What we know:
Elements: H1 4-33, H2 37-63, H3 83-110, H4 114-144, H5 148-158
Helix pairs in contact: 1-2, 1-3, 2-5, 3-4, 4-5
Amino acid sequence: MLSKKMEDALNEQINKEMYSAYLYLSMSAHSTNIGLPGFANWFMVQYKEETEHAMRIYNYINEQGGKVKLKAIEEPPSEFKDVMDMFEKTLKHEQFITKSIHDLMELAIKERDHATQIFLQWFVTEQIEEEGNDNEILAKLRLAGDKGNGLFMIDKELATRVYVPPVESKE
Ligand code: FEO
């Protein structure tokens, strides 16, 4: 059973995850547009992951007998200076999401909502991984350069990322 406050906050998080999906889909489209299929692939996988994050929360609210409320998704930017700009924006956005997850956890603790605390633990861990991935790619872009051969090599590497759907648990 979710409190109204917790339910509202989780619904807000669905919207943030859907915006994240939209933002990365926009970056994927931009990457395709500028001729970088590896970057386009990486952001497309990220888009799918974000949709899955939103669905996790959607399913959790339903499981808890709460009411899912979908809100309008803000328009993401569609123009980016270069790939460095896209990854800097990605990292900044993920830091914002991490803070949002931590705020949700704080609320769950304050409300003594143990079920939601356990549910949110997966997201806390996921955010460490997400920020780690972004930092790693930014470091590579700084090292190899975000132009010419270095950029081509990184594009090839990012082309190998594959979306792994979550394993559905059986009742
Ligand atoms: Fe769902 Fe990238 O946080």
